[in-house]
């Protein structure tokens, strides 16, 4: 997934010569807490937040150029970047939104933490069974039944509790990716488990072929 797939294309922008009052009205009417400051060619030259506007009005500043953060201080991403880079940038720099640039340094969108959370929420709601169906597709020659049998064995090995292939199949059909991550103790452990299942089902397949 790329940044351009989750960015907000309907963003607002202000100019450096716009009055702070005008900018505040525009931000309020569109319910935006942050906005890029663009030149006449839509290139990024600054960034303001609602807090900057409040401070500017309090200190009797008049124009956006007097309160904006300069481009050098602004975290930004490219529209062709992997979406995960925007997630990491937002987390590292503790920002609520990030401007998105194209190859000509023109602002083409804004990534907001809301967009990131919404996208992650959708990923979390993916059924675990969909992930296993993808595994069957990738593990050529492995059947769904063989994958479920291997999954039950790995589960017993990890938890000490006996689980049948049918039990495991029912479990993954009723759970989401997000629920599975919490149940297994985190994303890393979840994927370690998937790798273990993949290795076991292949080993069992090879062993059967040798008989």
Task: Give me a quick take on this structure.
This protein is α+β, with helices and mostly antiparallel strands and 211 residues long. It is built from 10 helices and 6 strands; from the N terminus they run ααββαββαββαααααα. The chain has helices at residues 3-6, 20-29, 50-58, 83-93, 113-124, 128-138, 144-159, 165-174, 177-184, 187-210; strands at residues 34-38, 44-49, 69-70, 77-78, 97-101, 107-112.
Rounded to the nearest angstrom, the radius of gyration is: 25 Å
Order of helices and strands: HHEEHEEHEEHHHHHH
On the 0-100 scale, what is the average pLDDT?
89
Q: Kindly report the spatial arrangement of strands forming the biggest sheet.
A: 1-2-3
Low-confidence stretches: none
Percentage of β-strand residues: 5-15%
By CATH reckoning, the class of the largest domain would read Alpha Beta
Q: How is the secondary structure organized here?
A:
Elements lengths: L2 H4 L13 H10 L4 E5 L5 E6 H9 L10 E2 L6 E2 L4 H11 L3 E5 L5 E6 H12 L3 H11 L5 H16 L5 H10 L2 H8 L2 H24 L1
Parallel strand pairs: 4-5
Antiparallel strand pairs: 1-2, 2-3, 5-6
Structural write-up:
This protein is an alpha+beta fold and 211 residues long. The protein folds into two domains: 3-122, CBS-domain; 125-210, no CATH class. The chain is 55% helix and 12% strand. The protein has ten helices and six strands. The protein has helices spanning 3-6, 20-29, 50-58, 83-93, 113-124, 128-138, 144-159, 165-174, 177-184, 187-210; strands at 34-38, 44-49, 69-70, 77-78, 97-101, 107-112. The strands form two sheets. It has a three-stranded antiparallel sheet with strand order 1-2-3. A three-stranded mixed sheet has the order 4-5-6. A hairpin with a 5-residue loop joins strand 5 and strand 6 (107-112). Helix 2 (20-29) packs antiparallel against helix 3 (50-58), helix 7 (144-159) crosses helix 8 (165-174) and helix 7 crosses helix 10 (187-210). The longest helix is centred in the C-terminal third of the chain and has 24 residues, at 187-210. The two termini are 44 Å apart. The model has no long low-confidence stretch (mean pLDDT 89).
């Amino acid at each position: 997934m790329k940044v351009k797939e989750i960015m907000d294309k309907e963003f607002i922008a202000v100019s450096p010569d716009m009055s702070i009052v005008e900018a505040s009205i525009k931000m309020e009417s569109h319910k935006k807490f942050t906005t890029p400051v663009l030149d006449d060619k839509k290139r990024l030259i600054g960034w303001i937040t609602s807090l900057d506007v409040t401070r500017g009005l309090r200190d009797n500043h008049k124009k956006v150029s007097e309160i904006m953060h300069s481009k050098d201080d602004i975290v930004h991403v490219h529209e062709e970047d992997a979406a995960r880079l925007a997630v990491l940038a937002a987390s590292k720099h503790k920002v609520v939104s990030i401007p998105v640039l194209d190859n000509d340094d023109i602002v083409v969108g804004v990534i907001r933490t809301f967009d990131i959370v919404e996208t992650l929420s959708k990923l979390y709601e993916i059924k675990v069974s969909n992930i296993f169906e993808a595994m069957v597709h990738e593990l050529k020659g492995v059947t769904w039944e063989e994958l479920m049998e291997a999954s039950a064995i790995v589960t017993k090995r990890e938890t000490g509790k006996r689980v049948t292939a049918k039990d495991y199949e029912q479990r993954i059909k009723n759970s989401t990716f997000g629920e599975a991550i919490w149940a297994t103790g985190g994303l890393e452990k979840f994927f370690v488990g998937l790798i273990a299942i993949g290795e076991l089902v292949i080993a069992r397949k090879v062993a059967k072929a040798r008989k």
